[in-house]
Amino acid sequence: MELRESDIEVEGCRAHIYEAGKGFPILLMHGAGPGTCVPVNFGRVLEPLAERYHVFGTDLIGFGASGRKSAPPYFDYPLWVKQAEAVLATLPKGPKGILGHSISATLAMRLAGENADVTKLLLTGAMGTPMHSSAALETLWSFPGDLAALRRSLDVLFFDSSFVTDTMLEDRLGVLNADGYPEYFAALFAGDKDALIAPTVLSADELARVTCEVAIVHGRSDAAFPSDATAAVLADALPQADLTLLAACGHGPAAERPETFLSLAFDFFG
Asked: Which residue among 17, 39, 115, 240 has the highest number of C-beta atoms inside a 10 angstrom radius?
């Protein structure tokens, strides 16, 4: 797979873009957690998707290969909305799809509500509904100061703890230990987690503007964002949405159940 990479500027920050494949354009956007980015979040499905579609992806500002803000707030949801809009504008004109995971599912729904050329929306581990923080989310949205803490954080993400391999830990530690990143990440998720969740919630009017085809895929054992508080609520608000709950799966359907995820994605995107 030839992965082409470039950057654009958004509000004075560098946003990194990945591109591969040909065909129906799909924008991939990852969630927010320790060491995440497009290659980490979608690593097990990126190549098969690129063999079939024109795949784009972007690391949220503050994560992965994108730049960091020079001043707080680092958890800057309005900036991420602007980034999503700017990256979407770089995709080919005409119908396109979005694959949004976790917090980026909320960005994806906002984009779909304002852009008629977004015709297909695939959401995994979706946020977007009113909810309170939990012990699981507190663990996930805190900087893991050592290997044991990182393992606890990833155990929150995945249903099967054996999925958290030494290689995975080393890869994520490499990202987390980059120059200045521990302080940045700790500051990014500092404070009241409920206050961080609040701007991600879509109103009834915002959800009503999402009229494209929607598929929601959620892990039945998602500890940080339980399906009955998130995916099921979204499915009720989006009458056109199909909801699939995956057994033996936590917060990462594309990582934990890649073959099932790809089967669903291929059927949905065509």
From this structure: 17
Residue-level pLDDT at 112: 98
**Domains, the chain, ordered by start:** 4-269 (3.40.50.1820)
Please list, in sequence order, all residues whose beta carbon lies within 8 angstroms of the beta carbon of residue 194, skipping any fewer than 6 positions away: 132, 133
d(CA 39, CA 18): 9
Q: Which of 190, 195, 226 is nearest to 72 (CA)?
A: 190
Q: Tell me the HSE value of 40 on the side-chain side, using a 13 A CA sphere.
A: 26
Tokens of 207: 């959800």
* CB 98 within 8 Å of CB 121: yes
118: left (phi over 0), alpha (psi -120 to 50) or beta: beta
- In angstroms, the CA 23 to CA 53 distance is 4
Residue 147 has a pLDDT of 83
Residues in the chain with pLDDT values less than 50: none
pTM of the model: 0.95
Residue 215 near residue 222, CB atoms below 8 Å = no
